[in-house]
Amino acid sequence: MAIATVNPATGETLQTFDPIDAGEIEDRLVRAEQAFQEYRGTSFARRAQLLRHAADLLEAEQDAIARTVTTEMGKPLAAARAEAAKCVKAMRWYAGHAEELLADEHPSAEDVKDSGAARAYVRYRPLGPVLAVMPWNFPLWQVIRFAAPALMAGNTGLLKHASNVPQTALYLEDLFHRAGYPGGCFQTLLIGSGAIEGILRDPRVVAATLTGSEPAGRSVASVAGDEVKKTVLELGGSDPYIVLPSADLERAVGTAVTARVQNNGQSCIAAKRFIVHQDVYDDFAARFTERMAALKVGDPMADTTDIGPLASEQGRCDLEELVEDALGHGATALCGGRRPPRPEQGWFYEPTVLSDVTAQMRIHREEAFGPVATLYRATDLDEAVAIANDTPFGLSSNAWTREESEQERLVQDLEAGGVFFNGMTASHPALPFGGVKRSGYGRELAGHGIREFCNATTVWYGADG
Predict the structure, then answer these.
(1) What pTM does this model have?
(2) Residue 268 falls in the annotated catalytic set
(3) What is the pLDDT of residues 145-189, one digit of tens each?
(4) How far apart are CA 232 and CA 230, in angstroms?
(5) What are the chain's domains?
(6) From the candidates 33, 234, 406, 452, which is the catalytic residue?
């Protein structure tokens, strides 16, 4: 795939970039290692000062970078602005909390004595240069939620961003440079996917984090495993959205629409499979379909647009294949199910609701990355849980019920990295984020995320000190 900015609303190639060569990759690896040796010794106060400066710059420039994001991957401009604002919030959160999150941990006096020590504690130390392989769908947020904790922990970062968001990737490197970080602390590598293995095998790169597809995750995990290097993977998702009879149906419907079409439907944690109890199924389906059909598809730069284009032509083709397979096997399109009739170019797809979905359809097992929702009728809570777990993914989940017993059952039995009740799944810097099964492993954000790329070092002193 060429490294290029291609406007998905028009299909026009606006700018292309040459990948850096082997010599430049080597130079950047040298700088990353040298920067780590200097930066690892900086105080939390200094790291926080730098990160807050970067946050201030991003906040001042959020309108401009939002237009770049929308141009490169097609999300509505308002959503791009919100993404930039979310990054600012996370940067400031880590600047204010990292020292506490990485404070030395002290076992009880009894346990220290039992270990034979005069004193003992655990210290979190940075690992070194970390390779981040990031996707295009949230091209700012996915990077910042790695970079903010990694830099506050004292690591350095090497970014291999998706090839269709090169201007966003270069902006991020420049942002940290202008904030005053030592040269080499955070660098963007304009490379193709074929260069990732060599970089990951380089001994100066100590770990990797990837957000992306399952095949990409398998590839990085395989190489990292061969090299015995730590990885964190956030892969695909096909999140269930369970609606039970006690739910506030009006709120459940409104949130369902937002949860399905956020980011033009291209979000790993978007609700995709809507599992509704038979007592409220018909009412929910009618309201949900009406609101999905009313969404406006169009120019992502326009304030009145609800859904912009998909990020790539291939992405739309993949989505069309899933829908056509479902329809061919008996599913019903309650709305959408096709490209919108429009004269201009661009990779648009209508908001779609499919009912009568069965396990024989590809869309039941595969992730639909676009504004397509699948509806399931469940006879009771047991069947709802069974449908929800009948997927290779386990990123997050939504459930709408006001019954405490049902909530406890769902927390116990849903196979997912998160269970969100009576609201929409979202990531927040104070809460750990990640999945199970083929949605990956490890956690981002909160204290769990910042400690992923730290050496939890046991420090033990004998009786002589």
Answers:
(1) 0.97
(2) yes
(3) 999 999 999 999 999 999 999 999 999 999 999 999 999 999 999
(4) 7
(5) 4-235+439-461 (3.40.605.10), 239-428 (3.40.309.10)
(6) 234
